[in-house]
Structures are given as C-alpha cells and as structure tokens.
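Reviewers of the previous submission asked for a worked example of the structure-prediction workflow described in the proposal, so we include one complete record here. The input consisted solely of the amino acid sequence. No template or homolog information was supplied to the procedure at any stage.
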Amino acid sequence: MTLTMIFIGLLSGLGILFMLMKLDFWKVLGFDLYVDIAATALLMILYAGTLGGMVAAMVGGLQISVVLWSIKKLFGYLRPTVTRKGWKISVSWKTVPGVFYNRHMGAKGYYTRQQPSHPEPLLRRFGFNGRTSGGW
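From that input alone, the workflow returned the following structure tokens.
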C-alpha cells in the first residue's frame, strides 16, 4: 500500500512537471517557489482524506520541488525585471546562467525563444544535398 502511494505521488508530480514544461519553462523557473507551493497545495487538496493520499501529495510535492530547484541551478532561468515609466509598465527578462549554461545557445535565442538576427534561409537549411534550389 505504501509503495503504491509513493508511485502515485511520483506520477502526479511528473504530470504537473509536464504541464509546467508546456509553458515557457525558463520563465516558470523564475517563480519556482510560488509554483512549488501551489503545486504541493493542489496535490494536498486533491488527495485529502486519507494518510495514503497525504503521502502521495507530499512525495509529488517533494519531486516537483527537487526537479525545479535542480534545473534552476544547473541550467539557469529567466528573472523578471519590472520597470515603470508613468503609467506604462514593462517587463523584461534577464538570463541568470546556471552551472551548465551554454553561452552559444543563449546567443542563438534558445533560452529566450527568440530567433537569431539573421536566420538561414529555409531552403538552404533543408535543401537536398546542399542545393539551394527548390526542386529535387
């Protein structure tokens, strides 16, 4: 029974992590504490009522906490910076590098989801045998 609840907690945590990865995950990591608290509270509400349910919720919350923290420390994240000029409020995102942050991937816009300033033409990238013409 206990192993079943631990397994259910791990699967629940994994499901929440997959849903978070559908969002802009580097920006989600900027708010990892709030996301961790909300996900753990959600699991506690969903599994409330039994001791096994609370074990599953705590295991899922622990998994989410450890995964978010380790990805944040290893790969970096985007930190929001809010600036205000009169009534206009703008949010900019600053890259905070982690241990395995790759500056070349950062320059290509991998972490910010921006395209490079001069992308390769589509035909050259996917052309047949390096030809730039559209035919076979």
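Residues 3 and 31 are 31 Å apart (CA to CA). We consider this example representative of the routine output the project will generate in years two and three.
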